Amino acid sequence: MPHTIITPTGIEHPLYEGQLEFTPGAIEQLSLEKGGESVRNELKSARPVVTLGQPQWWNLARLAREKGETLPAELSLLLRDADFYLLLLACSFRPERNSQVEWARFAAYLRPKAGRENPIAFDLYPREVYDETKTDVKVSVAPSLKFAEVALSPGEVVTTIEFRKLEPVIIGYGALESAPNWDFQKHKDQPLRGSKFGYLIVKKPRRAEAVRLTLNITADVVTRHGLLSARITEKDRAHLTQVVCMD
């Protein structure tokens, strides 16, 4: 039987948690235009809280071998020059009473721990979700090391991922690049909130030793006084780099 990874329903071990900051100068400008100190205080309290989960990763060649089968020729070919990892990333949004998150971008930057050749996102999931899926979703990793939503026979599966539910609207970008990301958009009248999960298949050059991963979030936040852009503070961004995808 193929190895199965169950996607969590929440973030149990945070890497980071904090309030986003609005674009520098935005609060000051609105407080001057709309009412002074009371508006300033209201906007400061309207900043949403974001949480980033600890990244988790699995060596895909190892998962394939754990099935007790010979590696498929297609997979053996890919493994000649690089290692491949399944990388799980997570974020969550908690809007405050006077705001809601309308749109957010969850970005990952992949750099080598050693050498100059960058790791890349060989594939990512989800790619496009436009309607909420309330039933369980199963996604397989094929020997081609691509995500597959179609049914595969047991011998064609490296591992299987189970999602309890996918939230709208999600669009993934950056396949075969070193800076993949997911855009999350609120759906109809439902604000963007709760935990969101994304998977990358990371191609790591052998000489890289490991992957230096940096995470970031930017968002558009609707407040009573208008739409404002928000981001993780400069000080906090400095602590969002981790070494991952190593054995």
Question: Care to describe what's here?
Answer:
- This protein is mainly β.
- The protein has one domain.
- It has five helices and 18 strands.
- Strands 3, 7, 9, 13, 14, 16, 17 and 18 form an eight-stranded antiparallel beta sheet that branches. Strands 2, 4, 5, 6, 8 and 15 form a six-stranded antiparallel beta sheet that branches.
- A hairpin with a 2-residue loop joins β16 (211-223) and β17 (226-231).
Notable traits:
247 residues; mainly beta; eight-stranded antiparallel β-sheet; six-stranded antiparallel β-sheet; 5 helices
Shape: elongated
Helicity, as a percent range: 10-25%
- Low-confidence runs (pLDDT<50, min 5 residues)? none
Percent of residues in beta strands? over 45%
Distance between the termini: 23 Å
Tally of alpha and pi helices: 5
- Series of H and E elements: EEEHHEEHHEEEEEEEEEEEEHE
Spatial extent as radius of gyration: 20 Å
The domain tally reads 1
The main pleated sheet reads as: 8 strands, antiparallel
- Structural class from helices and strands? mainly beta
Q: What's the short story on this structure?
A:
With 247 residues, this protein is mainly β. Helix content is 14%, strand content 45%. Strand 16 and strand 17 (226-231) form a beta hairpin.
